[in-house]
Amino acid sequence: MSIHVSNLHKSYNGHPALKGITFTAKPGRITGFLGPNGAGKSTTMKVLSGSISPTGGSASVYGIDIRQNALAARRHLGYLPENNPLYGDLYVHETLAFIAALHQIPQKKTRIAEVIALTGLGPEQHKKIDQLSKGYRQRVGIAQAILHNPDVLILDEPTSGLDPNQLQDIRSLIRHLGKEKTVLLSTHIMQEVEAVCDDVVIIHQGEIIADFPLNELSGRYADNNLEALFVRLTS
Ligand SMILES: Nc1ncnc2c1ncn2[C@@H]1O[C@H](COP(=O)(O)OP(=O)(O)OP(=O)(O)O)[C@@H](O)[C@H]1O
């Protein structure tokens, strides 16, 4: 089931950050959510995750309205926030056990072991979060987001600051997850979008300015590639 956003508005102290955006992210597809700095990507993702309230409009996750039934919507949602906030003093295992308890995951040891294997955290699983490299912290962030096996995943810049090897690993993990789940992914890296995304939504100054399947780019636009289109539409 999808993410559906309809005429969504969000203002901060009277300043509009989202000006009535509408888009859908579909199951079994990875939707790249692109836009320049300050365009409204994180704001949209925070609203969808229930971290902040919208000023107007509606949104649903897995068919559940996030304003009417926030808790039920959250059960189907995994969220990796920008900057991936984690408790530095906790061990990787403790972090995941804590999240498993929050979600009341049955057979939590088995599920944690599964997710550690899936995210390649095995070699680092006995370290504290503060002792991890950025790439491994990102893996923990993704692990905590997928622990309850949600149908919908929202990943806010999941690969920012990773080295090329880590990039490859995390991208292939995201591709793997995207085969079954609805994934909304924000990034500034156009190569990443071309490598992992099926659909593209571009937001600029709080408005959606493009929304298309990536394989239709050349049919719809005269630009040679995604980067050229992005620059033309947002500068
Ligand atoms: N807590 C806040 N209080 C006031 N204004 C905010 C707050 N958070 C975001 N904004 C403003 O809302 C607008 C959208 O910001 P947002 O963080 O959603 O953009 P973004 O597309 O995620 O940017 P980036 O690519 O830089 O992460 C910006 O003008 C930003 O300054």
TrEMBL record:
InterPro entries: AAA+_ATPase (IPR003593), ABC_transporter-like_ATP-bd (IPR003439), P-loop_NTPase (IPR027417). PROSITE patterns: ABC_TRANSPORTER_2. Pfam families: ABC_tran. Gene3D superfamilies: P-loop containing nucleotide triphosphate hydrolases. Residues 3-230 form the ABC transporter domain. Keywords: ATP-binding, Nucleotide-binding, Transport. SMART domains: AAA (SM00382). Belongs to the ABC transporter superfamily. This is ABC-2 type transport system ATP-binding protein. It comes from Parapedobacter luteus.
